[in-house]
Structures are given as structure tokens and as C-alpha cells.
């Protein structure tokens, strides 16, 4: 398990998601190392696209501004590409062997974000206008489609290409399934037999978020020559991690510090999202007036306090812990290179405590 510096204060200090057991690897060094390994291949792949589409892709990754001028914007932490590199290394292969998988997953992740922002109507991402807002909806859809096609091409040309493309295809089907369920959740009532249940949320989060995390580390292992049992175990670990990641995101969306998260306080409540803490609180026999508060323009602080009083926050923390434990159990099920296994465990801890 992972420990964290005692000087760091987070919204979860009173209820740590990850119990303290052993010192973590330096996650930032791991992420930097993997990004440095993957970045040239990712840039080369984007460079093969139509110039206009390539500019939108580069904007997505934080490499340029609208019009193509160089930018220093954050392109994200590169977690999925790191998982692919570490998956190859965990199988005993050089990290370079996992680069094609890392590039493919990074391209698919960017594609999913482009389309996600359009579907959700989000106008900013990482403190910049989203691609559809900056370039238009049609161009953003086109850029997303191009990123997806390039991901498949990248894997098809890799060693073990057919198996790798099959693995990616399964993850993509699950991602679409999760996104569909997430969109449908918004149309369902807060109360009654048709309300969204926590177990439905878990399935949605595994598909929407966990499928690509699992695919990333499993692809790296596959390209690194790991046996099927190892590939499957790493995929399971990533899927559990995805659920934990999404639940923690929900906790931050209600109780996170805006100075740390970059999101407005109680933002998810304002948008009336059916997040895990809300669904868990609604399952309480004492839910009482919560549905009416959620469906109105009531005081958001009052609503957040009631969700916490009904056990929504503690249920979210418990679910994140359970999913992390399941992810680590999956890692323990198969033989992995010891040092890399430690880096994977530290990365798990980092993702569920990503407000560090």
C-alpha cells in the first residue's frame, strides 16, 4: 500500500483512502520517465494526420494554441501512457515495447474527451476552451474520429497487432456502454424504482473510466509478451482503479478545494449529477428531503451537509478503498517484476489521492 507525506493536507485527511503501509515510489518521476519515452512517438503519430486535424489534436494535448502557436498548457499527467509502459516492464520487457500501446491509448483517451465535452456541453478543460468551443463542433467531432482511427492504425502495425486491436476494441465497446449509461442516468428520477442504484453506478464507472485504464496496462503487458493470465489480471486491476478514480472524482466534485481541483465548490451538485455519494445517500432510509433538495435550487452547502449526514461521503470513501484493495489484489495474483509492481501500486495511490 502507499503512504503520503504527512505535511500534505487533502479533503481526505480525516478518512484516508489508502492505508499507510510502505513508502511509495516517486510517482512524478515515473510519470516523467514514461512521458519522455512516449512523447516522440505520440508526436510522430499526430504528425501523420491532416494538418488542420493535427493542430486540433496538438491543442488537445496542450502542445499549441488555436492557430498553431506553441503552448505551455498542461496536457494532463499521462497516466494511461504510463500504465502501458509499466505494463510492458511488469512483464519483464523494456518500457519501449509498450510505447505503441501507450500511444494508442493516449489517442483514444483524447478522442473520448473531445466527444465527451461535446455531449456534456463543457466549455473548458484544463483551464482552456474545449476543442469544440475553440474550433467548432463539427471540426471537434472530426478530430475525435481521426484520433480514434489513428489509434487503431498504430496498434495494427505493432507486434501482436491483431490481439492488441482486439483488446482495444473490447475497451472501446465498454467505454461507449459506460458513456451511454452515464447520459441515460441524467434522465432518470431521484426517487422510485427507476432511480439509479449504486451498483449501476459501479458498472458505469468501470466501463466509462476503468475500461481504458485496464486496457492501457494490459496492452503494455501483451506487447511485452506476458501470458494471458497476467494480461487479464492487469486489465482487472485497471478496471477497479477506474471505479476508485471516478468515485474520488465525485467526492472532490462536492467537497474538494477549488484551489486544488480547479472546479467550483459543490460543482457536481449545481449540475445535479448522479454521483456515487449522492446515490449512496439516497439509498438511506432517512433520505427524507434530499430528493427535493437535489431537484431544486436549494442551498448547495446545506445539500452537501445532508449528503454527508446520510453517509454519502463515508460510503464514497469506503467504495474507493474497496476498489483500491481489489486492484492491488489483482496485481498480487500474478508474478510481476517487483520494482515495477511497486511503481504500479504507487500510481494507484497517486490516482486516488490526485489532489496532492
Provide key terms for this protein.
single chain; 356 residues; mainly alpha; Farnesyl Diphosphate Synthase; two-stranded antiparallel ribbon; 16 helices; 2 strands; globular; disordered N terminus
Q: Residue share in helices?
A: 55-70%
**What's the helix count?**
16
Assigned CATH class: Mainly Alpha
Q: Please give the number of β-strands.
A: 2
Task: Describe this structure in a few short sentences.
Helix content is 66%, strand content 1%. The protein has helices at residues 27-47, 51-60, 79-90, 99-120, 131-135, 137-156, 161-185, 198-223, 228-255, 258-261, 267-270, 276-282, 290-294, 300-309, 312-332, 338-352; strands at residues 124-125, 128-129.
Structure explained in plain terms:
This protein is mainly alpha-helical and 356 residues long. It has one domain: Farnesyl Diphosphate Synthase. 66% of the residues lie in helices and 1% in strands. It contains 16 helices and two strands. The protein has helices spanning 27-47, 51-60, 79-90, 99-120, 131-135, 137-156, 161-185, 198-223, 228-255, 258-261, 267-270, 276-282, 290-294, 300-309, 312-332, 338-352; strands at residues 124-125, 128-129. It has a two-stranded antiparallel sheet with strand order 1-2. A hairpin with a 2-residue loop joins β1 (124-125) and β2 (128-129). It is globular, with a radius of gyration of 20 Å. Mean pLDDT is 89; it is low at 1-23.
